Amino acid sequence: MLDGHLLLGWLSFTIIVYLLSLPGPTTAYFGLTGNEPLSLLPLNSLPEDSVGRAHLKLCDQLKLDKKQRRMCRRDPGMVNILKESVILSALECQHQFRFERWNCTLEGRHRSNILKRGFKETGFLYAISSAGLIHALAKACSASRMERCTCDEAPYLGNREAWQWGGCGDNFKFANKFVKEFLGKRSNKDLRALVDMHNSNVGMKVIKAGLETTCKCHGVSGSCTVRTCWRQLPPFHEIGKQLKQRYETSFKVGSSTNEATGEAEISTGRSQQQQQQQQPLPGSSAQIPRTMDLLHIEDSPSFCKPSKYSPGTAGRKCYKDKNCDAICCGRGHNTQSKEVTGPCQCQVRWCCYVECKQCTQREEVYTCKG
Ligand SMILES: *[C@@H]1O[C@H](CO)[C@@H](O)[C@H](O)[C@H]1NC(C)=O
Fold first, then answer.
1. Buried b (16+ CB within 10 A) or exposed e, 195-223
2. What is the model's pLDDT at position 7?
3. Fewer CB atoms < 10 Å away: N or C end of the chain?
């Protein structure tokens, strides 16, 4: 039996495609970070080249706040980008946390309870959401899917350089500006709101830091007398990986009150070890640390047992000698021998698809005891 499709296995079973409905005066967030239950998100409900007013209706369906809805309606391409960015962030979160006790369950109740707290996981959700939105939008601009933006504009360099900016760069600048406005500022200035916004900014900064200049040579037989260069975003997996690392080294912060303004500020109660490794935060009076660290306010639960934050790890599939001990929380694991059918002996066919056979193999499956 032949199966002639690209292997996007992990994608197909994760097409649990959720989007949040948002609103409420204090939340100007989007992506995985709304407080309302996730509602089912139909993918590709709008044809790319649709003209007319269909997108206006679709923007209304997203239940954005007033400013966000206006921004969504400005460009017919935007509503699809918003939806795609949520999928991008969700899949990447689940990919990065596939070996952890908290596996980025996005089921409404658990997720919204995590968002009410200031855990490391909360910070990751904010960062991956803003990063996903910038990434999706910057790519959409350079792929001509938007009316209001195109390729990255080249910086003015005059004729001093032997090479030129050209090609079509990902439009980080447009995307960054849009997302900053879209996610906006929270009116309420308590510690949680400050930390959420900081983490959201970390997602944007990680994208900015990852911009790469790519060049192509021209000239007689590739002599490279002329080069054209453009800026490109790194693959989103790279962003996810970096944010996951920042999650692991997330800093716990506390609150202090600014004597002058009476507003909450972030104060860092760093451990000695952390202080030796890291530069102290510039300007202790700054409201938000100007660093790329993710921040959290309180310690996370263990995620071992069912709670309001996760379904627990009973029944979770684990990998022997890799993460069974850690994710089963010392309860041990069951071993089952299963027949697993999947694609195998795949070959690339001219041109351009992959052909696979279906094979059945015996496989040991490990799951955490309850
Ligand atoms: C996360 O783990 C739960 C069991 O604890 C499982 O039901 C769920 O499918 C997992 N989610 C993902 C995205 O792997």
1. bbbbbbbbbbbbbeebeeeeeeeeeeeee
2. 31
3. N
State the distance from the centre of ligand 1 to the C-alpha of 81, rounded, in angstroms.
26
Question: What pTM value is reported for the model?
Answer: 0.78
Q: Which residues, 6+ apart, have CB-to-CB distance to 222 below 8 Å?
A: none
Strand-pairing partners, residue 264, are 257
113-143 pLDDT, tens digit each:
999 999 999 999 999 999 999 999 999 999 9
Most confident segment among 147-156, 289-298, 310-319? 310-319
Closest C-alpha to ligand 1, atom 7: 316
Whether the CA torsion 357, 358, 364, 369 is positive or negative: it is positive
User: Read out DSSP for 277-335?
Assistant: HSPPPS-TT-SS--SS--EESSPPP---S--SS---STT-EE-TTTTHHHHTTTS-EEE
Ligand 1 center–CA 316 separation, angstroms: 7
Domains by residue range for the chain, with CATH = 4-250+293-312 (no CATH), 326-368 (3.30.2460.20)
CB of residue 287 inside a 6 A radius of ligand 1 = no
Q: Whose CA is nearest to atom 3 of ligand 1?
A: 316
Ligand 1 center to 101 CA (angstroms): 10
Does the structure show a pLDDT above 80 at 191? yes
The answer to whether residues 214 and 207 touch, using CB atoms and an 8 Å cutoff, is: no
Q: Mean pLDDT lowest for which of 64-73, 197-206, 289-298, 310-319?
A: 289-298
CB-ligand 1 contact for 313 (6 Å cutoff):
yes
pLDDT of residue 277: 42
Cis peptide, bond prior to residue 352, ω within 30 of zero: yes
Q: Which of 77, 91, 183, 69 is nearest to 139 (CA)?
A: 77
Query: Which protein residue's CA is at the shortest distance from atom 9 of ligand 1?
Result: 105
Parallel/antiparallel/unpaired status of strands 251-257 and 264-268: antiparallel
